[in-house]
Design goal:
mainly alpha, two-stranded antiparallel ribbon, rod-shaped
Length: about 220
Amino acid sequence: MDYCSKCGKELPVDSKFCPSCGATIPAINKTNEAVTTESVITDPVRTEPIVTEPVKTERVVTQPVNVNRDYTTTRTINEFYKDAGFWGGIILITGFFLPFFSMNTGSLFDAVRAEASSDRIVLLWLIFPVSGLFMLLHSLNALPGFLAIFFTFFALIALIYWGYIMLNERTKYFGTEDAVIIIKTVGIGIWATLLGTILLLFHRRHTKVEVQRTKYIDKTL
């Protein structure tokens, strides 16, 4: 149904004028054209199933970290067992109580105890166990180093003096002048005293210091 463009009244079919206002109605060309459609042939879409692997999730546990604090660990290790002076002190103290001569069981300790009242010179032998004890205490950080060094040289001087007396009076101490027999007569106590005193001269403290410093940083910020 058409309507007048001026008055809006209904227009009769195929009228050229509006019956109400007399306005001319423009001719309208109505053409019917056939619309041709073509069929479009499409290939079927192939679908393949998608295989998905399960996602592995990891559990992350976070703890609050104090970023304003530095954690410092200090550890000191005294490697006294690497010190030749430490073992020299043990050998020196042990030798003081071992047999002085191979033909009897008497030791330097027995000689000092038996002859101290009549011969004061035997008290000089006490320097050996004292030097060994001081070196042990120094190796364990229980005694100042200058005392151990002082008694070490004191023991060396005593050993030289003691050896000089025994060699000059070989008959008195060993009962013979023959060097071979003297070597066989010397007991383990004398050898231990000699070895321990020499090891004291190679004293060297082995102190190892390890410092570990770790700073924890919060990377989640």
